[in-house]
Structure formats: structure tokens, C-alpha cells
Amino acid sequence: MMETTLARAALYNFLAAVFGDLPTLTLLDSARQIVPGLANESLSDLQREYTRLFVGPGEGYVPPCASVHLETQAEKPLLWGAEAVRVHERYRAAGLEIAPAQPRLPDHLALELQFMQHLCACQAEAWARGEAEEAAQWQAQQESFLREHLLPWLPRFAARVERAAARTFYPVLLRFALEFLQSEIEHLTAVAAV
């Protein structure tokens, strides 16, 4: 169980890096090894695509923050919406604080994926210490965070990126991420039932 949980944590960390910063050559190499079907696109083209899609402003900007995609009743969805507050509270409940210099909002995709990595790492540590009950609590937090926070908005975000993208790199990685998160729900539900 511990090895599987550490592998899951590593995959969350990879996805957080993909959506958290400009791509690097190292990240591109990793992405091509992990995700089948990625086109061989130049680093400079992908860096421009990342900036256009996720940093903005301008045409094609798709904010990678849950509040924008969940609060669809608002005339113009805003950053730092109610979802950002809820996610920030989840981080605090798990003993985490966002660094003061962190440029991202709490509900930024990269931070939510890093949070999942943290929850997996905590579960692996509990397994290593032989604390099955604590490991189960960390697992329950993973499942609830996926169901309540990541999965409700990620499909909408992925669809908007698919429409706005000039290259296939980020749409392919988002499809991969969605498939992974769906498999996570199935895995976590199955393990909890045992």
C-alpha cells in the first residue's frame, strides 16, 4: 500500500508542476514518458501556450482556478470566490498554510494537486509507521477533496482549455489528469470498501 500511495503522490506532484509553472525541458521529457500521445512540440511554443492559457490576460486566457469555473451564476465569475475560501480552509484543517509569497490563489489547480500530493505523502508516512487507522483518515481526506473540490470543476476547465488551446499539449495532459482522478475515485472507493 505504501509504494502505491507514494507513486500516486509522485503523479500528483508531476501534474502540479505541469499546471503550476512554465514548462521546462525536464518537465517535457517527463511528460513524454508518462503520457502517451503527446505531440513533439518545441519548448518555446509550449511556454508561450502556457502563458496565453493560464497566465493571461488576453484572448484564450482560461484561469486555472476553481472559483471561476464553479460560480457560473455570477455575472462575471471572480477569482478568490467562495470555493477559494473553502479550499483554503481544507488546507488549514490539514495543517498547511499557503506561503505568504505564493502567487497562486488557494483554488489554483497546481495548489489543489499539490494538496493531493501532500495527503498521499501523509498516508504513506502513516503506512510506514504501521498506523492503519491514520492512513485510512488520510485516504478519506483524499476522496472527499477529490469529490468536493477537484472533480466538480476540472471537467469544465478542461473543456475551456480544449477550445482555447492552439496546441494539443495541455488538452492531452488535462484528459490524462481527468482519467487519473477518475481512477483515483474508483481506487479510493474500492480500498475503503475492503
Written description of the protein model:
- It is globular, with a radius of gyration of 17 Å.
- With 194 residues, the chain is mainly alpha-helical.
- Helix 1 packs antiparallel against helix 6 and helix 7 runs antiparallel to helix 8.
- It has 8 helices and no strands.
Poorly predicted tracts of residues: none
Q: What is the mean pLDDT?
A: 92
Give the total of beta strands: 0
Largest sheet: none
The computed structural class is mainly alpha
Task: Work out the helicity level.
Answer: over 70%
List keywords for this structure.
globular; mainly alpha; 194 residues; 8 helices
Summarize, please.
With 194 residues, the chain is mostly helical. It has helices at 2-20, 25-34, 43-55, 66-70, 82-93, 109-128, 132-164, 169-193.
Strands, helices and their partners?
Layout: H1 2-20, H2 25-34, H3 43-55, H4 66-70, H5 82-93, H6 109-128, H7 132-164, H8 169-193
